[in-house]
Amino acid sequence: MDVRVLVVGFGHVGRAFARLTALKGSLVERRFGVRVKIVGVVDSRGAALKPEGFSGAELLKVSEVPRSSVCFSEPYGVCGLSLKSLYDSVQPDVHVEVTPSNYVSGEPGLSNVMFALSRGANVVLANKAPLALKFDDIMGSARARGLKVKFRATVMGGSPLIDTVLSLRSHEVKKVYGIFNATTNYILTLMHESLIGLDEALKTAQAMGVAEADPSLDIDGWDAAAKLVILARLLGLKLNISGIARESLSKVTLRDVVEALKRNSVIKHVAGFDALSGEAWVKPETLSSDSVLSKVNGLLNAAVIETDVCDYILIGKGGGPVETAHSLLDDIVSITGGLI
Amino acid sequence: MDVRVLVVGFGHVGRAFARLTALKGSLVERRFGVRVKIVGVVDSRGAALKPEGFSGAELLKVSEVPRSSVCFSEPYGVCGLSLKSLYDSVQPDVHVEVTPSNYVSGEPGLSNVMFALSRGANVVLANKAPLALKFDDIMGSARARGLKVKFRATVMGGSPLIDTVLSLRSHEVKKVYGIFNATTNYILTLMHESLIGLDEALKTAQAMGVAEADPSLDIDGWDAAAKLVILARLLGLKLNISGIARESLSKVTLRDVVEALKRNSVIKHVAGFDALSGEAWVKPETLSSDSVLSKVNGLLNAAVIETDVCDYILIGKGGGPVETAHSLLDDIVSITGGLI
How close A139 comes to chain B (CA, Å)? Predict the structure, then answer.
């Protein structure tokens, strides 16, 4: 079975996805009988299109053009086309939305996703903002058209948390909490291990490419809050990003860290919601070193899922382009009818 | 959509499943549009059958008859019928196999499962033995008939490990290891926390109903080994239970525990396999208290899944009748087309 895929957004994650499809396309075809054909990649200035699907070598090549320049790549580049013209030209089955997250307007992801659904394409997202802002609109539009929207990459990007939660079909989820932002966890780990302050840890994280030049989406908890909204909506809860009590990591000092260590504890930036009360929070918490979460360091994420039956913990990579690309590819296979 | 279910084996797990279906049947129907109808329950002497499906109250009632006596329960009991006659009478869509695990012959589970498939029923198992001994035969028979076999309850019984592993569609799993037996983990936790020897801890575990009168299947690693075989086969590896190096927990002394604690470590009974070399083992291992697995205590299980992309850890309940019953119900929903 052929699946025609349009990749919208072509930064680190979009490129990692193109390379991964080149690398593992044949593995996925052998396992699931699904041939993933990338028919177009789109950035802010234009696209590279090949209606019959790029070869592996072509995908590797197009992944190396400079930022916002795929439309200049020979011979498939086309500059300045509207999404509508792109759709007319390549007619994708699956739209992969990997533009940057914008929590104010949700754009350009939100319009892109709604357009994709209107044109009969299934949607796979790594961009969190459209779901964090308009989950019900997107799902409603998909449902009305019999289309699927998958978004494993949006929460614990490299780990199958969403699939794990959905597989608890007969459970009632009471509470979900954990470490959902790899940047702040990396910074906190540095503070505990090297006994340095937040500013110094942040600089190291920025030098390592783990933190953005403007780290506020991570440090102030917006990123984790968006993930909570997506998880909560997945479970049918009406949580909005504005309803989440956010405490920035920026108030945590080296002194706090030292005090915690003295008490055989560590500080983590924990995000969670209570499904019964509707309360949701992102805040620094002091955790005993006996707890599993206290051992989740560096770029790892962890989720605790408390249900009416028992509790589960999933630990894994929070993001990273290669890990996120695997989640996108897994979602595409699952849309087309995977093993589960 | 109605799903007609025959429950074969009516001990702790079979009864928990009947009660759970009574309790959560309407939740599952609301969420997935699937009405789970138990049309028969079978024990070693006979069955209680109701072709139109038992009501919730009837399920609670039949779950309270003494062991091996459902055939005497009025008005639906029938004694001494063959499985063939039972199938003729209630025509199930799904066969739930919850007879005890027998790692010598695999019986009665193995014959029951093969018969169910020959009659066009999908199969859900909590009994590990048929899969540990004849995985390929069972799957081959199912595949040839377009039927499904699900077995989440067989490994980390209360946790969705199998679904989580299957959801890693584009990963190559390199190694799986962890704590897969709740009884030995409970015993080891008692030894570390109360500084008692294995015999004393075992007696407590038996008194708590956590260990069997004959605990050898757990202590000597047979149970964990069977789980490894199922996980390995799921991933396409040709592992047999006889090919697993088993070291019994019985050689672990209180002195070993004290020595480990002195070195800021703990002893765990760890089971695992290496997908590349084919090696597989169940053995006591000394783990640093910095590791996540060292914090997995009591009746919890944990699995570490090492892949070519990154590593994942899932922690959750290993068994327990209620937890296992949820896994059975989740598998039935997934067979009939759940959300994932």
Answer: 13
Whether B148 is a known active-site residue: answer no
Helix (H) or strand (E) holding B316: strand B311-317
Helix A254-262 and helix A182-194, axial crossing angle in degrees, nearest 10: 70
The alpha carbon dihedral of B236, B238, B242, B246 has a sign of negative
Neighbouring CB atoms inside 10 A of B339's CB total 12
CATH superfamily of B164-317: Dihydrodipicolinate Reductase; domain 2 (3.30.360.10)
Give the CATH number of domain A2-156+321-335; options: 3.90.950.10, 3.30.420.40, 3.40.50.720, 3.30.420.360. 3.40.50.720
How is residue A83 written in tokens? 């999404």
CA gap B183, A308 in Å, rounded: 23
| Chain A residue with Cα closest to B311 | A316
The full set of domain ranges for chain B reads 2-158+321-335, 164-317
Across the interface, whether the CB atoms of B323 and A339 are under 8 A apart is answered no
Q: Which of residues 11-30 of B touch A (CB under 8 A)?
A: 20, 24, 27-28
Q: Would the CA dihedral through A277, A280, A286, A288 be positive or negative?
A: positive
Integer angstrom CA distances of residue A293 from A164, A271, A316, B211, B295: 18, 12, 12, 29, 10
φ, ψ for residue B101 (rounded to 5)? -75, 125
Looking at 3.10.450.50, 3.40.50.720, 3.90.180.10, 3.90.650.10, the CATH number of the domain B2-158+321-335 comes to: 3.40.50.720
pLDDT tens digits, chain B, 340 residues: what are they? 999 999 999 999 999 999 999 999 999 999 999 999 999 999 999 999 999 999 999 999 999 999 999 999 989 999 998 999 999 999 999 999 999 999 999 999 999 999 999 999 999 999 999 999 999 999 999 999 999 999 999 999 999 999 999 999 999 999 999 999 999 999 999 999 999 999 999 999 999 999 988 999 999 999 999 999 999 999 999 999 999 999 999 999 999 999 999 999 999 999 999 999 999 999 999 999 999 999 999 999 999 999 999 999 999 998 899 999 999 999 999 998 743 3
